[in-house]
Amino acid sequence: MPGKHDWTPWMKKNRPPVLLCTLGAVLLCCLQSGASVPDEVPVFTEEPASVVQKLGGSVSLRCSARPALANISWRLNGQELLDGDFGAVLGPNSLYIPSLSNLTLGRYQCVASTSVGALASVLANVTAAKLRDFEPDDQQEIEVDEGNTAVIECHLPESQPKAQVRYSVKQEWLETSKGNYLIMPSGNLQIANATREDEGPYKCAAYNPVTQEVKTSISADRLRIRRSTSEAARIIYPPASRSIMATKGQRLVLECVASGIPTPQVTWAKDGRDLRYLNNTHFLLSNLLIDAVGEDDSGTYACQADNGIISSTSAMVLYNVQVSEPPQVTVEMQQQEVAYGETVRFACQARGKPAPSVMWLHNARPLSPSPRHRLTSRMLRVFNVGPQDEGLYQCMAENGVGSSQASTRLIIVSAGIPSRAKLPSIFLSPDKVLREQPPVRPGASGAMLPLDCSELPGQILPAEAPVIVSQPRTGKADYYELTWRPRHERGVPVLEYMIKYRKVGDPLAEWTSSSISGSLHKLTLAKLQPDSLYEVEMAAKNCAGLGQPAMISFRTGKGRKGKNDPPKTPAVPSPSLSPPEAPDKPTVSTATETSAYVTWIPRGNRGFPIQSFRVEYKKVKKAGEDWVTAVENIPPSRLSVEITGLEKGTSYKFRVVAVNVIGSSPPSAPSKAYTVVGGRTHERPVDGPYITYNEAINETSIILKWTYTPVNNTPIYGFYIFYRPTDSDNDSDYKKDVVEGDRYWHSITNLQPETAYDIKMQSFNEKGESEFGNVVILETKARPNQQRPIPSEIPDRELETPTGVVHRPGDLPYFIVVIVLGAFIFIIVAFIPFCLWRTWAKQKQTADMCFPTVASPVSSCQYTMVPLQGLALVGRCPLDGHMTAPHGIYPVTGECRMNGKPHHLPGQQQEEDGL
């Protein structure tokens, strides 16, 4: 073929260049492929998950990313964690903690890095497992009609992770449902078709699956079955309507138990629609089950009971269900190329309920607002970009239900150079996305910030504090209905309310937090303790953030008493009775620009009814300000009053006094400092206090006194005291004591003896802290030379004296060393007489057994510590063949002569008899 003849000579002629070009191309491809691996954007294939483990247990966290050459590092609470720190062992794709301690608790995050940039994973919480004790509770007597369902409530204590419930039923502990006993996810026990056989005490216990601890309730509830011919339907659980937050995808169980004769029929409806015909709902006895809740399951559920008997009270209870969702984050563009000096904008959409908080990161480092960086929850702007701005940007969202993140890459190009990778035109600009984003109705499922606050015209102010309208005293022993209304309906709508509450007076009590939709104005605080004081703080949140909080305190009822309890004898007035007890610490909330609501809860009247209350106040800004009566002769039925005529921008404290015929109670504890809105806004204090006197009281305590002169009448709330050893150069070694109010002295305790301390102070208010005042150096006293008494020998009167020396934990090793040395010396001293006595006893025994008192050593056999019956072996010890047995030494036969008669060693006769 002509083509072949034409091609072959050319190929032969040009073979070397062709081969060289082919090899070069292959080599170039290999080099390019090898160089492209480090240039890949890291992508997580596995992120660490949160872990709950007991202290001392092991923890393993996993993290891996593509490409395989990506470098994996770890952080603990934002600080880089190296191999060996706190005992942690870092592997290629893992972090292992052999023994969990307080130092290794916290939030972990892994970082994947390549030459392109770095990405941070979602945060993983490593939490210590715990199980608290049951709170003291009175025994409850539960009555239910025969044939109906009974409910035994179990108020499980705080546990991490959630405790599993156990019930003591007829001398048997139930871990799961059995027969007509049904253990609900809430921890309640439901007894179906209850009869007289089910009467008796019921006790619950909590089991922590991690620590494997079991704790039992202090009291037991008693069930009583009653028989009647007819009884109108009534709902016995829940006792009142409730609000519930459920997580998307989880099973939801709404409990509703009714009682009556005949047995009532229970029906469920959601937003007025009957639920019997919906596919995703099931019924277990009279309870409603939803296998996997979704967004559409949010709403108001009504449980109604009816048995045909007309009653004046409605047998209905409501559940307000809000479905929470973990965050879902999307970024608008996966990559942007921007010319040097221009402005770049990154858009991020974070969905979730409650609305998640958003944090921006650049190469795994959090970004803060600056002249070049403008941050909002949905937008990041970087002005005048340069090479230092290249890399990976992350939008990370977290809302308490979960966390999520998404990333984008920024490439800086020089002007005039064409882009290396043009993106499809399908992507929209951030401005267009924001303009086309429809506003969201307040309280809608998955509520987000309706608008980017930075894009709205004018200044948007945070929502005002809501007005709490519920009363501060409730007759219910275990729950409280918190109700409120928005202060003003105008302006930017409220998206959600953030509410937290805790028990007052319990140092171990922690805040219980929840968030509900902005369209709701009621929340049931459940599982409370009887006859206890609680404090509540709540704030409204709009697109500008959280507003000023509203506060209230309330006291729960004492609960039901058993019918067998003897009736209380009415109090008889007597001359020995005293004025009422001081009311509880009042709470203050905003009324108008020049007035405030003061709310309080009275305590015992000590025999005579309370006739009136008196509210006093004083200004915080001046030291030594006297208390002034604001309102007096307040009727005892009123537990709240509006204080008018307050100065704008001034801070006040309030207290309450109760009055009866005997006299006035002591004043209540002062309220928190309250600043009247409006007027000139006070700035933070300028000058700090001046320390005028300091003295070391003993080896562990120092007393300080100081003066303070306000500048421009700026109010202060108190003082910060910072102290650290003088030989320390690390600012993190400073410890801080807080002195609230107008007290101008303080005692610093728990110091080290013979140690010099640097001490400095600041004043503070709601705007911040002042500059530091003067710095003083003071050395604690030396430890006394005389030996300290053993703690068990310290007289009781010395322990009760406030000025008595308190042994610090650091002295414990010295006591241990002293005790050990003393015990050792005692053993030696006691052992010497014992050794002397034993030597004398052996010599006497030797003389009695025909041994001479002084004899040449015959053998190297040791007789010390040999039992008496073992002496027969002495005759068999090998003797030195070169030595002649002196007179009196036992012959080899073990026989000796005493008083001229042969005598056998002890044990020898037994051996001969045995032969």
Automatic annotation (TrEMBL):
According to the UniProt entry, where is the signal peptide?
A: 1-36
Cited SMART domains: FN3 (SM00060), IG (SM00409), IGc2 (SM00408)
Compartments reported by the entry = Cell membrane
Name its GO BP terms in alphabetical order: axon guidance; cell-cell adhesion
Membrane topology listed for this record:
Single-pass membrane protein
One GO location term (cellular component) = plasma membrane
Going by the UniProt record, its keywords in alphabetical order are: Cell membrane, Disulfide bond, Glycoprotein, Immunoglobulin domain, Membrane, Repeat, Signal, Transmembrane, Transmembrane helix
Residue ranges annotated as compositionally biased, kind Pro residues, are 567-581
Segments traversing the membrane = 812-837
Q: Carries keyword Membrane?
A: yes
Annotated Fibronectin type-III domain ranges read 465-560, 582-678, 685-783
Keyword presence, Repeat: yes
User: Where does the Ig-like domain lie?
Assistant: 42-127, 136-219, 238-324, 327-411
Q: Please give the residue ranges the record annotates as the region Disordered.
A: 554-590
Q: Which PANTHER family match?
A: BROTHER OF CDO, PROTEIN SIDEKICK
- Name of the protein this chain belongs to: BOC cell adhesion associated, oncogene regulated
